[in-house]
Amino acid sequence: MRRWLHGDRATTLVLGLVSALVLVGIAVRPDDIPINGAFLPLVVAILMLGNRALPWFATYMLGVLTVAVLLQDSWMPRTVVSVTVMYLLTLAVLVVTRRRTGGLNVARMRGESMLVDLRDRILAQGEIPTLPEPWLVESALSSAGGSGFAGDFFVATPSEHGRRIELVVVDVSGKGEAAGTRALQLSGAMGGLVGALTPDRFLPAANEYLLQRAWEEGFATAVHVSVDLGTGVFELRSAGHPPAVQRHAGSGRWEVLQAEGPVLGIVDDVAYDAYRGRLDPGDSLLLYTDGMVEEPRRDIELGIDHMMGAAESLLRGSWDGLAQRLVGVVGSPDDDRALLLVHRRP
């Protein structure tokens, strides 16, 4: 749009002025300035103007030609041929550019449809399966700048015939549509891997998958938690991801859970150590991406403290809907933000 305002608009104005001067010349000195003098601005317009400006200028030129025809006192065969050619050329320009812009609109609509489908497929991978009482799992996602596409996504899959739930939060490098495309591929791969492998093998397999893709921006961070729905015992593993936090219902205390491991897609043949814990009745676990806790000129530790404080103030005695409320008030709007909440009701 800006290019049109500063480029095509100026060219159109100049050519329009030249056409008007030619028209004045035809009116004042018809013997010295032939009617086909109006042909030159149209040819220049065809060579220089884009598809958005050209049909408007061609419409304007139809008016100029019509006025020029009305100003003619006498007609020679050559003049008739010239006028006919100019009219036909102008009409051809209108038809071709209209078809061209129409095709672009169709392509744009198809592209938007594909991107919406891309987003829906990523969201479907993170759809939370139905869980038995007393478990509550919620997710919330907000993309950078309100865009419909994000590099953050979730994977949620039951395992061991429903006795466990596998939950993954992933942050793919980059933002917008490019990150969304990579996120779709990675979410599909992770969705297949996480339910088929034991928890200790999942992140190494995801790391190997990313290394094989050899993307230019091919790294990602992830956190994976595997929860036993019968006992509340969980295994937590991280690949360069911000630490999960647990709220202990008995004391009301928040605890930062340190499970460290390298980023996915950088180094081959790596291991990811597990943090093992337990969610007692009333306890909760928050998994999130860096957009929730990182802001310019602020340490990530302060961001984590701020998020835990905001969660406590938003709790209001109920964990239902907390994930969405927390994403709405915490983190940077210029970054993708994702949060996964796991709560064991008392």
Could you walk me through the main structural features you see in this protein, from its secondary elements to its overall organization?
The protein has 346 residues and is α+β, with helices and mostly antiparallel strands. It has two domains: 2-117; 126-344, 4-Layer Sandwich (Phosphatase 2c, domain 1), CATH 3.60.40. The chain is built from eight helices and ten strands. It has helices spanning 2-28, 39-48, 54-70, 77-125, 176-196, 199-213, 300-315, 322-329; strands at residues 135-142, 152-159, 164-172, 220-228, 233-239, 244-248, 253-257, 275-278, 284-288, 337-344. A five-stranded antiparallel sheet has the order 1-10-9-6-7, with helices on one face. Helix 1 (2-28) runs antiparallel to helix 2 and helix 7 crosses helix 8. The longest helix has 49 residues, at 77-125. The chain is elongated, with a radius of gyration of 32 Å.
